[in-house]
User: What shape does this take?
Amino acid sequence: MTSASGTAGTRGTPAPRAGGTGRRSVGRFLREVIAELGKVIWPGRKELITYTTVVIIFVTFMVALVAGLDILFAQGVLLVFG
Assistant: This one.
């Protein structure tokens, strides 16, 4: 009989961990994270300022849009239900 996960006869028991103890696994994970962060292309000062400005303008626009719709719908509810 095959279980829902596609393996025969396991009855939901977890597979054993590869790689030994948890401490070695955590250390390896942290080394890999640091190695991956070294591959990241970080933005320069000019790019960072540009991206930050775009985000602030977009968030301000969205807040104004939601606030405007909120006021509009509030006025509509007051007109309908009085």
Summary: The first helix runs from residue 22 to 39. The chain is about 65% helix and 0% strand. The helical segments are 22-39, 45-81. The CA atoms of residues 32 and 38 lie 10 Å apart.
